Amino acid sequence: MKRPASPVLSAAAAAVGTAAVLAAAALTGGAATAGPLAKPKNAGAQELGDPVYGVCRGTDPRCYHDWGNFDPAKGYKILVYSRTAGPRHANLGPALGPGMNPPLTDANVAQKALVKMGQDNGFGVDWTEDVTQLASPSTLLRYNAVVFMSTTRDALDDAAQTSLRQYVRAGGGFVGIHNAFGTEYNWPWYEGLLGGANFYDHGHAQPGTVQTADRKDASTAGLPSRWDFSDEWYNLVPFPSEVRFLATVDEKTLTQGVTGNMNHPGHGSFHPVAWCQYYDGGRAWLTTLGHDAKAFTDDGSGFAGAKQFQSLVLNGIESAMGMKPFCR
């Protein structure tokens, strides 16, 4: 997948960006910098904030707003949003009809996999590609997390943008999977929600080795330190910052190289593929993985790493919902 038209990243600029990012990689639990936060209950968090995205974000739980909107006694539920306004990943199948929970076909692999994941693990799942279903924060507040499953380009209108922002500020959970990073390029708040990161390009879809960078987090619990997987291995500009890095890809295992289709040279010795953060009052759990349909359906016997990927996504969703500890 190629990013929409933008100035091409020069090799020199990419090298500088990569070097800066390697330094940032040491900030796995990076503290946020000075700025305002309007939440009197969390007085200490008023000193936390991000000068670029204008919100409280990072790994400090004081950036989370617990407004009491989500009662565990009522159970847990997610909304899967897979609207595409550009290239569409094959694992999404044909575009869905209007409304909430339109019929799914066998070709809607990723959506059906997330529905089954909920059925097997005790949480409800609704799904839609109808942007009007996201237009009201009161609707979104029915869900403990909203999952953007390989959305593309301008997948939200103005009303849905406002609603999503109000939902996150009210303590909602957000999960971005794969091409959620190819979405809403021109909305800085959303870029911040992704961890201050954005998709730039990718090299060949190919096998590689994922390294579990933080095995203490709930979303990586039970994962081996290294596991094989196949994906597109997104290169990122900007590079994620002020986040907890959960998993990386070992670029040395990418035999077809990591240089992207817009000549990004990759991220060298630290190339993240999953991370988490608190953002503007809510929780955000992110992964660039999830290109191949078999990653969502295979039990691991035929598609290397499918079992580990599914575990990572399930635990990430559950932590973003608040079912499990988040980002610690």
UniProtKB/TrEMBL annotation:
Record-linked Pfam families: ThuA (PF06283)
Signal peptide bounds: 1-34
Stretches assigned to the ThuA-like domain: 108-299
Q: Which SUPFAM superfamilies match?
A: Class I glutamine amidotransferase-like
- What keywords are assigned to this protein? Signal
**Coiled coil ranges:** none
What is the protein name for this chain? ThuA domain-containing protein
